[in-house]
Amino acid sequence: MLRAAWRALSSIRTQAVTQAPVLGLPGGGCAKLLSVQRDLPSRPGGLILRAARGYATQKPVQPSHEDDPLPSMLLKDYQDIPGIEKVDDVVKKILSLEMANQKEKLKIKKEQLMKKVVENPKDTGSLEARILNDIISTMFNRKFMEELFKPQELYSKKALRTVYDRLAHASIMRLNQASMDKLYDLMTMAFKYQVLLCPRPKDVLLVTFNHLDAIKGFIQDSPTILHQVDETFQQLTETYGGLSAGEFQLIRQTLLIFFQDLHIRVSIFLKDKVQNSSGRFVLPVSGPLPWGTKVPGLIRTFNHKGEEVRKAEFKHGGSYVAAPKEGSFELYGDRVLKLGTNMYSVNRPVETHMSGASENLAAQTQESIAPNPLAKEELNLLARLIGGMEIKKPSGPEPGFRLNLFTTDEEEEQAALTRPEELSYEVINIQATQDQQTNEELARIMGEFEILDQPRRSASKGDDLLAMMDEL
Amino acid sequence: MFRRERSIPLRGSAAALCNNLSVLQLPVRNLTHFGVVHGPSAQLLSAAPEGVPLAQRQLQAKEGAGVSPPLITQVHWCVLPFRVLLVLTSHRGIQMYESDGSVMVYWHALDAGDASLVQAVFARGIAASGHFICVGMWSGRVLVFDIPAKGPNIVLSEELAGHQTPVTDIATEPAQGQDCVADVVTADDSGLLCVWRSGPKFKLLTRIPGFGVPCPSVQLWQGTIAAGYGNGQVRLYEASTGTLHVQIDAHARAICALDLAPELLSAAEDTFVHIWKLSRSPEGGYIEVEHCHGECVPDTQVCGARFCDPSGSSFAVTGYDLAEILRFSSM
């Protein structure tokens, strides 16, 4: 069984390695595969001797037949032919495993094993997991974080969109303009919702901690990235942990200025009734109070000696309850606040609606009047920020993983054409600093491709040797 | 009971600030002026009694060094003995205009001084006291400007040191009688209230300590201080002694605006506006508070509220992201 498993796994590696140039995996992905291959011995002679010694001293291992495919199953090469189900029974029998040799049975078994490995949620090799890893490690990259933590003014909408664009392309994932716009709108409205509904200003920090907690859940198997996120947590605590309530109020008010006049309708919010059809968020007049606020309704009167002389109640109109406890600001702890937790923990559709969002046109055009002589200063800030990001460009001709946030490609195209003018984001292209980096990056990736050949050879060598062993 | 009147549309929505509505009543001309901060600009408009908008004007924060246009923190009309000035405070400085906003008569740039890199520098808190205009600063200092009866010859008369944290709001009332009584109250982010007596040299009379919660809005009327806090409480103090008279658990979120004339109006981010009747009890001389009316502005984080007439029979409200001024009047 061990041998069969080894063969199955080595064939997976072989297949993954052969796929690398086609998908255009970034340099980082290649490096990971390389480390896997390093386990194989490079000298064929040594392998034969070791294997032979192993066979001499150990009991022979019998392959297990428990997960064997059914004898009636068709040969792998004939499974996907359209109309194969309709052929004659006799033909089916000839093409089935019953009439085939061990090799064919193994082929199918390998395929099933591979499927199992890929479907495993802990599989860190799958495309989605890799993309998440790339994006998160870019976001929490030390240089990038250093720039973010420098005291600076609120970014303009244009600048933030540029940074976001770069971040989304830090993996092999690609989105075209329409899907990118939709993703950005979704992010903006979700964050607006979280900031607006914070019961007290300091809860903005708890929302951020909720974000980090969720991110840590995505990269549990990558200790390096986990460490980066924990370091960022430390930095957040150092920078913001000691701020006063008044300072947090200023932060929250400034953030709300960024979100002013954005009323894009998000279907998940509309469905959950947290946003109404005008695009405005629902502010409930019930529920838990912020930590430190008492239930409204009491009027206490004191005399000049400080003694309470009267207690009266009034009807305040809402139906609030006191907060059960304060959310934790520690590295691990119950945040209590639900704002900032994963809104897609239950499978939900991703849709945003453009129509009806063009209120206050005048206010928005104010923002886009760019002849600001100090715009250059902002570009410099941006360049430093983006320069701190390790961008992985796909080296192959084809993008590896294209994300479309619409139901069909046609819908995506249509959305790009009909997007209202005032909501189009002009992404700033910062070429100057990136070109040099791009060339260096490409050169490095090209260099790594050459090393790739060797492991492939030794893998097939190992395969051949095992085949020889089988016949012993 | 109050009923909703016709709203006045705004060119730009109101920003999420505190005290984000200033009202200048001109009963002689049958006009009401409204001032609302949008962000980097402020909007002034005048309306007839029924709420019909007549004229409007936008003022920008004066540019200074920096990457993005500066944000305005507050706009407020200052009624002085011989003139009315409109004052605008921002993250760059203090701008003073003629009451219709047509001409800027004075500009005071903020000196960042020894503000550390992480501190925000701004002016906030505006009030008129006699022929002085008081403006608060991020440092806790309060600048006192001496305003001549006419002309631009405005002079910085004094810098008051009473607060250690950024000033949030200033309230004043005309000095009563010959006695030197308290007529200026300043509030800050730590909840501390300083009570002053105005004059050629301002005198600090008493301090009312905070309790770790900011005091974004304060009012002063007939010797009573009304202070609204970040935890939704409204407290009434005796101005001369600083004694606490009444504590109301009034709102579920931070209070953003108060007005006092003679009723007390409180507005908070919990979407509610409450009106309270104040009276002095005959026996003990202490203040009694009675809740008169509560109004819910659905799904709106209120950021400003003011009475529109001296008797308190009508009031106006602004909310974050709302491009209109809501009006209510009693039936």
UniProtKB/TrEMBL annotation, chain A:
Record Pfam families: Oscp1
Superkingdom field: Eukaryota
InterPro entries tied to this protein: OSCP1
Name the record gives this protein: Protein OSCP1 isoform X1
Species annotation: Balaenoptera acutorostrata
Gene name of this polypeptide: LOC103000012
UniProtKB/TrEMBL annotation, chain B:
Gene3D superfamilies, per the entry: YVTN repeat-like/Quinoprotein amine dehydrogenase
Record-linked PROSITE patterns: WD_REPEATS_2
UniProt subcellular location: Cell membrane; Cytoplasm; Vesicle
Leader peptide range in chain numbering: none
Major localization listed first in the record, in broad terms: membrane
Domain WD repeat-containing protein 54 beta-propeller: 1-330
TM region(s), chain numbering: none
InterPro entries the record matches: WD40/YVTN_repeat-like_dom_sf, WD40_repeat_dom_sf, WD40_rpt, WDR54_beta_prop
Any one Gene Ontology cellular component term annotated for this protein: vesicle
Keywords of the record: Cell membrane, Cytoplasm, Fertilization, Membrane, Repeat, Ubl conjugation, WD repeat
Biological process terms in GO annotation: single fertilization
WD repeat intervals: 248-279
Residue ranges the record marks as coiled coil: none
Record's function text: Plays a role in the adhesion and fusion of the sperm-oocyte membrane through its interactions with IZUMO1 and IZUMO1R/JUNO. When cross-linked to form dimers and trimers, it has a regulatory effect on ERK signaling pathway activity in response to EGF stimulation. Colocalizes with the EGF receptor in WDR54-specific vesicle where it sustains the internalization and controls the degradation of the EGF receptor after EGF stimulation.
Subunit: Homodimer and homotrimer; forms tight forms of dimers and trimers. Interacts with IZUMO1 and IZUMO1R/JUNO.
Name of this protein: WD repeat-containing protein 54 isoform X4
Organism placement in taxonomy: Eukaryota, Metazoa, Chordata, Craniata, Vertebrata
